[in-house]
Amino acid sequence: MDRRNFTKFALSGLAFSFLSDSMGRAALPETGPELMGPEPVTPASVPTVPATPRAVAQQPYAALLERARAALDNHAHHFELRDRLAIVDFDAPSKNPRMHIVDLIGGQTSSYLVSHGRGSDPAHSGWLHSFSNEFNSLASSSGAFKTGDMYFGQHGRSMRLIGLDAQNSNAESRAIVVHGADYVSEDHVAAWGKCGRSEGCFAVAPHIVPQVLGLLGPGRMLYADKIGNG
Hints:
Elements (H helix, E strand, L loop, with lengths): L2 H25 L5 H4 L17 H4 L4 H13 L9 E6 L9 E5 L5 E4 L30 E11 L2 E8 L13 E4 L5 H7 L9 E3 L4 H8 L4 E5 L5
Parallel strand pairs: 1-8, 6-7
Antiparallel strand pairs: 1-2, 2-3, 4-5, 4-8, 5-6
């Protein structure tokens, strides 16, 4: 074989070898221990709560929302769902929509009328005056709750709540839940200037129950408190 043919043959062989090697590598999976090595192990952690959206940062309940976000971090091991939460601003009177379900990612907020317990407002003024975790107090409790199972009870479709703090630890045993009630409605407020009182439950208007329970669902936080002087 002369030098010219040998060189031509050698180059062709080299090109074929390179092409075959490239095709072989392209046929291999893109990932796998052969190429990537063992997957890095990510330490178990709970995602942080997104920053407060601008849409809610200037709302009257913004301070309560920040307290709720801190509670969400404090109770992080209880929550896998951290996209939305509900806050109940008991600084506001019962005639105002004071349950706010906040989308922590998009910033949208849905607000609803909600009751407080008769033990928290013995004179039925329309304002919550005190909290209690005691049995038979008929009062509202403050703090962080985890939304639990949905069920059908004497008030129709309802949702259980699990108290996560010392001041609401009896919530399950006291049957503190989210449910519908006719005394929590725009018509009732128009007639009486305030909502009726529950026995400590977070009662909302019956026609609102599907929306509230749909937005919350089991496994999210409901946070209730009164942090102002009203």
